[in-house]
Design goal:
alpha/beta, nine-stranded mixed sheet
Amino acid sequence: MRIGVITFPGSLDDRDAQRAIRLAGAEPVALWHGDHDLKKVDAIVLPGGFSYGDYLRCGAIASHSPIMAEVIDAANRGMPVLGICNGFQMLVEAHLLPGGLIRNDHGRFLRRDQVIRVENNHTAWTSAFDESQEIVIPLKNGEGGYIADAATLERLEGEGLVTFRYLDMNPNGSLNDIAGICNEGGNVVGLMPHPEHAVERGFGPNTDKAMRSGMDGLRFFTSVIEKVLA
């Protein structure tokens, strides 16, 4: 299976996403923002970083990159697409997911290992989790506050489209403690925490068993592999 990772000017975590894909058992495929070629991939990851220096709005300029026309078309045809942090911001700017992301309510950049709850395990990227499972994923953002109007929030909650919710603390002021959402088809998922940073022992969050041993993020990538190959 081939999973594409798109590099934009200012991407930071594209190589990390490629490594996570490789560790999960798929072939990572490097894609470039200025191309119109998805290279026959089976799924796509929009990685974290500061695309185009976060000018205008985070993810706004990247959402108009040439390759995003192909991503939007592929997503609308059902291809799995995961947006991580800046990638989540791109997805909302491209209107593949509703709402928006704004400056953290405390006004600071935050980095921490964050507990989140899996609210929806029926998406292409969450099927390897149990419903209501609590996982720990690194978080690092300055503009991660999820917002939406009241009608959108009601629809997200009512239709089960809230995919992840912050526990223990709300790190950025996101409405309803929302950490991630999906589209109606469950193939497009966006979240602020970084699953690609919790895929290998010795480099992930601390656990009760050992320091840096957390690997909850790996299941994002094994989920999509199982979904596509099923």
